[in-house]
């Protein structure tokens, strides 16, 4: 547990996004291997401790946590009603069968969804897309053309809502937005697509003219440091998975997903 506390010495916003991505991926892969409530609940407790120590804002933790709980609950309800029946059957109607086996599987699924989604969501609070692109290009050595193109595309996504509103205002000013809402929405969506393609083409030409794809002759504007705190966070992800899996195996609840 000392590794977890060492990784949490700084706020989550100051950690390299590549380390956050690696830690979240490690936890997700480890928890996917088994469908049992012991490993998921153990990992969930350790993740909450890690996020609290990394100074994740309490308001964000509660707000986003409530959304994750709701989504996981919907999944659990589906598994309860339509999961594989086993043991005592409590209720049956047409295709719906509620049994001990489906309830146990629903609880395990609920906890596993929370345990996988929690680090994936909260480790990326306040993560700037530019910082993530810097990390992907400098730490993982991904092609600069791909990284910068993806970053430009993400930056352009935020403009789609504004363009949609402006298109609506223009159509209302021309008097073509007062009837046939479905047809108007389809036409407006097509106009938005055309506008986005044109803007993307202009942006690609401008970036090419400025040499954004000329790596390695170009340098990165901002360095992407990767030090002990990032390594500690990744190790913390492995520790969480190791403790969760060991606890599940020792208690006899380990249920490898490939054996089902």
TrEMBL record:
Alphabetized Pfam families for the sequence: CbiQ (PF02361)
Record keyword Cell membrane present: yes
UniProt entry tagged with the keyword Cell membrane: yes
InterPro entries documented for this protein: ABC/ECF_trnsptr_transmembrane, ECF_transporter_component
Membrane topology: Multi-pass membrane protein
Cell location: Membrane
Transmembrane intervals: 21-53, 65-83, 103-125, 231-254
Identification of the protein by name: Putative HMP/thiamine permease protein YkoC
The organism of origin for this protein: Mycolicibacterium chubuense
């Amino acid at each position: 547990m000392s590794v977890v506390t060492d990784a949490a010495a700084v706020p989550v916003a100051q950690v390299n996004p590549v380390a956050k991505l690696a830690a979240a991926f490690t936890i997700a892969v480890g928890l996917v291997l088994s469908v049992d409530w012991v490993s998921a609940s153990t990992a969930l407790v350790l993740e909450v401790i890690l996020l609290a120590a990394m100074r994740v804002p309490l308001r964000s933790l509660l707000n986003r946590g409530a959304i994750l709980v709701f989504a996981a609950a919907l999944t659990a309800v589906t598994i309860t009603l339509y999961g594989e029946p086993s043991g005592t059957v409590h209720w049956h109607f047409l295709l719906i069968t509620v049994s001990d086996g489906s309830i146990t599987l629903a609880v395990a699924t609920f906890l596993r969804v929370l345990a996988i989604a929690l680090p994936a969501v909260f480790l990326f609070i306040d993560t700037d897309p530019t910082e993530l692109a810097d990390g992907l290009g400098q730490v993982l050595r991904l092609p600069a053309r791909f990284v910068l193109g993806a970053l430009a595309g993400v930056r352009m996504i935020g403009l789609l809502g504004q363009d949609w509103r402006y298109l609506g205002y223009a159509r209302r000013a021309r008097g073509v937005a007062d009837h046939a809402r479905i047809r108007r929405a389809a036409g407006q969506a097509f106009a938005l697509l055309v506008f986005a393609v044109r803007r993307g083409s202009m942006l690609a030409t401008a970036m090419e003219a400025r040499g954004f794809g000329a790596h390695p002759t170009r340098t990165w504007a901002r360095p992407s440091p990767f030090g002990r705190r990032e390594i500690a966070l990744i190790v913390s992800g492995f520790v969480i998975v190791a403790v969760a899996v060991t606890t599940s195996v020792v208690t006899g609840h380990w249920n490898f997903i490939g054996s089902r």
